[in-house]
Write a structure and sequence with these properties.
six-stranded antiparallel β-sheet; two-stranded parallel ribbon; 2 helices; 33% strand
């Protein structure tokens, strides 16, 4: 399962086009630019699910993207723009990064 957390507080469940793995282009589309993999506190859990990875727009601060309060609370750092959160068991596309 993956959730797209948006700065306005809305969350949308998203799935990879092939149903299994996000491609680099899909990750970029969700965050609106170049991706940055965010290091999360160990064993970060939301609604009982363990978060595996969070991706954000690498240039979001330079682009003055809106503060994302929900993603910031999960990451325990300032996050701007959309954040794509992958939960344990999800597979992101490692080969293309």
């Amino acid at each position: 399962m993956a959730i797209l957390i948006q700065p306005d507080g809305s969350n949308d469940e998203v799935v990879p086009e092939d149903g299994q793995r996000f491609t680099l282009d899909e990750l970029r589309a969700h965050v609106g630019g170049w991706i940055e993999k965010v290091r999360l506190p160990a064993e970060t859990k939301v609604n009982g699910y363990t978060i595996q990875t969070m991706y954000v727009n690498e240039e979001g601060r330079w682009e003055n993207l809106e503060h994302n309060l929900n993603a910031s609370m999960i990451a325990d750092r300032h996050i701007v723009g959309n954040a794509l959160v992958l939960f344990q068991g999800e597979q992101e596309e490692e080969d293309e990064e």
